Amino acid sequence: MAIEVRIPTILRTYTDGAKAVEGSGDTVAELFADLETRHNGIRERIVDGDQLRRFVNVYLNDEDVRFLDGISTKLADGDSVTILPAVAGGMR
């Protein structure tokens, strides 16, 4: 099962600069474990234990997985997962 994973600029050091990589897994958690086998260190930047890190957003086909089943969200062949760091701040 092939899943396209879009990688934000800040995490591309783990993917040798690739903007997108392929992975596999039946759930988002399994997908991240699969990515870790080829891109050492990336998983710990995305998840903390069994949940997403606070300032990381993950979208499955444009839907935030936090509003689905979190990292237990089921995946299907051809799905697209986008990892986005949360952005905050600005001027007052």
From TrEMBL:
Pfam families (UniProt xref): ThiS
First and last residue of the signal peptide: none
InterPro entries to which the protein is assigned, alphabetical: Beta-grasp_dom_sf, Mopterin_synth/thiamin_S_b, Sulfur_Carrier/Prot_Modifier, ThiS/MoaD-like
Protein name, per record: Molybdopterin synthase sulfur carrier subunit
Organism: Streptomyces lunaelactis
